[in-house]
Design brief:
Layout: H1 3-11, E1 27-28, E2 34-37, E3 69-86, E4 97-105, E5 108-118, E6 124-142, E7 154-161
Antiparallel strand pairs: 1-7, 2-3, 3-6, 3-7, 4-5, 4-6
Length: 163
């Protein structure tokens, strides 16, 4: 059962009319899209593209900095429903901590959520964006601490193309 259908079942809604919930249209719109990071790990072995390649066993990794970030360019405007972020699966899940997730077009962004604290290794973190959240870019940024790295394993962005 997909995450969205499980969510709807828990709410008791099995027949929603809003097309965003349409199982046939909702898709991971971030897969294989262009990703930019605030920096790249010195080894250059953990590129930004790893967060949208569909493989949970690898990851992207910034250098140590104050507020590391990454941005997924979806290539077009999408109505975003849900964003899933996976922490690294073998170690170091806590590197994913105290971060914001937003969606928008350049300067105008809608906050989809904030995660407080440190993730567990392999943890899946889910954010449901506010109704009618539309944008071309998904932005993830650590917003606390003095020296951090951002090293998520995978980011899934569930949405539909905005016509």
């Amino acid at each position: 059962m997909s995450t969205i259908w499980l969510f709807l079942a828990l709410l008791g809604c099995v027949c929603c009319t809003d097309y965003i919930f349409s199982h046939s249209k909702l898709q991971n719109v971030a897969y294989s899209k262009k990703v930019t990071m605030s920096s790249i790990h010195v080894s250059n072995k953990f590129p930004a593209s790893n967060v949208v390649n569909g493989i949970l066993s690898d990851f992207a990794h910034t250098s140590i900095e104050r507020y590391p970030w990454l941005r997924i360019n979806l290539g077009a405007r999408y109505r975003i429903h849900e964003i899933e972020i996976f922490a690294r699966s073998k170690c170091c899940g806590s590197q994913l901590h105290d971060f914001d997730v937003s969606v928008g077009d350049n300067f105008h962004k809608t906050m989809c959520g904030h995660f407080t604290g440190a993730a567990n290794t392999g943890q899946r973190i889910v954010f449901w964006c506010p109704h009618n959240t539309v944008g071309r870019f998904v932005h993830v940024q650590i917003v606390s601490g003095t020296e951090s790295v951002l090293s998520p394993a995978e980011i899934l962005v569930w949405g539909v193309h905005e016509h």
